[in-house]
Amino acid sequence: MFDNEPNLTDLDFEASVAQSLALSPPRIASKWLYDDKGAILFEGIVSSPDYYVGRAELEILDAHAGEIGAALGAGGSLVELGSGASTKVRKLLDAMPRLGRYVPVEISEAQLLEAAATLRDDYPGLEIVPIAADFTKDFDLTAVVGDGPVLGFFPGSTLCNLLPANSEAFLRRMHGLLGPDSFFLAGVDLHKEPEVLLAAYNEPGGAIWDFNLNILDRMNRELGTGLDRADFRHEAIYNADLRRIEAAIYPLRDIVVRVAGQTFDLPAEQPIVLEYSHKYTLETFAALAARAGWHTVDAWTDHNQLFSMHFLTNRSPA
Length: 318
Ligand SMILES: C[S@@+](CC[C@H](N)C(=O)[O-])C[C@H]1O[C@@H](n2cnc3c(N)ncnc32)[C@H](O)[C@@H]1O
Prior knowledge:
Blueprint: H1 13-21, H2 36-46, H3 53-72, E1 77-81, H4 89-95, E2 101-106, H5 109-122, E3 127-128, E4 131-132, H6 142-145, E5 150-154, H7 164-178, E6 183-189, H8 194-201, H9 207-223, E7 232-239, E8 244-251, E9 255-259, E10 262-266, E11 272-278, H10 282-291, E12 295-301, E13 307-313
Parallel strand pairs: 1-2, 1-5, 2-3, 2-4, 5-6
Antiparallel strand pairs: 6-13, 7-8, 8-11, 9-10, 12-13
Helix pairs in contact: 2-9, 3-4
The structure holds S-adenosylmethionine.
S-adenosylmethionine binds at residues 31, 34, 39, 42, 46, 82-84, 87-88, 106-108, 134-136, 155-156, 158.
């Protein structure tokens, strides 16, 4: 079902890294960036001044959380995919006093449980059901959400990390996970001048660099690879033909590494891709969502038109 996508293969960390290093160019699944340390490093990116995604998304949520809550109605479930520190979702929770439950789904279990405990203190009347899961794999929410209305929430442009065909397949899979009569709110980064994108993804504060090089620490710790951060640099480039950022680490010299009993050459300056971030217009993303069986209720941008949120439903028109 999924095409050429390390993020979506059902392998453990070691097997996935070995498979990724055999690709040309090597491409390690970005989900492995989020171990406990990576989850904390990611928070540093969200607050960096050049990385507009978090600010723009909060602005859109501020403006539209009320109407999203009204559409969902009372007693519904809010399911966040890749919930991280569950920060942005507070804008929705604050605007949805009649929400039945919040279901954060997150691969980084320590961060998930900590965020759920904090939210329980701050929203004492709300049922919170954290699920430690990889959202690329099948899991069942029926017992958790019952038959009330469900809103899937996928902020942070995480959907844009997938190849467009796989984003479409992912959205199609959401019908089964969330059920019929559901809503889906997706954060989607907009096509814009490459200079703005490159400034955001190569932000000078070094937070993204630090976050991406954390993959080497994880490989050393879990796979015994003995790599040295000082032998790599980080750079994000813009691929204009495919309208995507390609964030990669580059060896500064020829390196040989052993993973899962196999030997891999990592030649100097050959990128090891860690993340693609595809850029859409409002129209190209709405068309992708429609191909996946979702109708657009509305789509919003921040005032600088840097970022968009698409509010979708699979409810049949009345
Ligand atoms: C870009 S961050 C977004 C965090 C938060 N939703 C926000 O918008 O600030 C992506 C989050 O998704 C999580 N994640 C990435 N891949 C995942 C997967 N396959 N399954 C579950 N969670 C995943 C990461 O751990 C991280 O917390």
